[in-house]
Amino acid sequence: RAEVPKAPVRPKKLFNILLAVLLGLVAGTGLAFFFEYLDNTVKLPEDIQKYLRVPYLGPVPAMALNGKPESREKPELVTLHSPKSTASEAYRGIRTSILFSSAEKQPQVLLVSSAAPQEGKTSTALNLAITMAQTGGKVVIIDCDMRKPSLHKVFGIPRDKGISSILVGNCEIKDALLNTPVPYLDMIPCGPIPPNPSEILGSPRMAKLLELLRKSYTRVIIDTPPLTAVTDALVIGRLVDGAIVVVRAGATPREIVRNGLTQLKAVSSPVLGVVLNGVDMDRDGYYYYQYYYYYYGEDGSKKKQVHTKKRSKIGYGQEADR
Question: Do 138 and 184 contact (CB within 8 A), yes or no?
């Protein structure tokens, strides 16, 4: 006998909802993996070792002095104004990696560059120079970025005389050598910007200048323009003991970095490794690096841990102990 149904045959709401949830999860996961596949930037140390095949020197967290991004202190001098910050500890770890990068002897003349602009090479060069000067050795940092010089702006000093003045014979080394607020750290600014920076930096006077600085300083740090933009860094690369390439995490494509490293190797410049700059320590497996630093503190006293532990993709406990 025909009867009135108690529920509609269609649509099956519960079934449709479950199907929509399932398809949404599958599609979302698939899109996430697809976009990850399309992202060819350098984000993790595994990317450096897998795709670039060069040593990894360490991470530099996104700049924040004492956890306060609004601080008036210059982030370029974080190791001077905020020595207990995570960034300062990261630079000290990178310094240790550089000094022990060679089994025969420690590199004395270091070139710091990047594959592309806006990678943070100048800040890295400056903070490495400060951490090396803090060990007691005499350090000089040279601004060889004759395209966009900036070291003199950090310290607020003029660049009337500098490396370009020395190389063209307009002044002596002692006239361009300036003291900085950091003990044991001197600086040679860029000087007047010449019309032919590559030719000046590749002249025999540059090699002679570096030989003279080797006799007076424990470390010589050279800040240069990006590798893929101009040839300035390459002409200096053959004169140094090691080159350090700075890569901004999640911003620089692997092919550009690989191209810069290939150019350095073509001029027989020893590549010490890559520094990963602008790392978000709360993501991508960097959790334990920040956790161990926060827990022990620089003064050796234990502090309260407020975050929830999670599995780390990268063993940064070893990094924090260096």
Answer: yes
Q: 232 with 146: CB under 8 angstroms?
A: yes
Give the C-alpha separation, 260 to 273, whole Å.
Answer: 12
CB 125 within 8 A of CB 225: no
User: CA dist 315 to 53, 286, 320, Å?
Assistant: 19, 8, 10
Length of the chain, please? 322
Pairwise CA distance, residues 117 & 229, whole Å:
8
Query: How open is the CA angle 71-72-78, to the nearest 5 degrees?
Result: 75
Chain center to CA of 188:
22
Token pair 């070291």 in the structure block, residue: 151
pLDDT 10s digit of each residue in the chain, 322 long?
788 877 777 788 888 899 899 999 999 888 887 776 677 788 888 888 888 889 999 998 876 444 444 345 666 788 888 888 888 899 999 999 998 887 678 899 999 999 888 888 999 999 999 999 999 889 999 999 988 888 988 888 888 889 999 998 888 998 999 999 899 999 999 999 888 888 999 899 999 999 999 999 999 999 999 998 888 999 999 999 999 999 998 888 888 999 999 999 999 999 999 999 988 766 645 544 444 444 444 444 444 443 433 333 333 333 333 3
**Token pair recorded at residue 262:** 């290939």
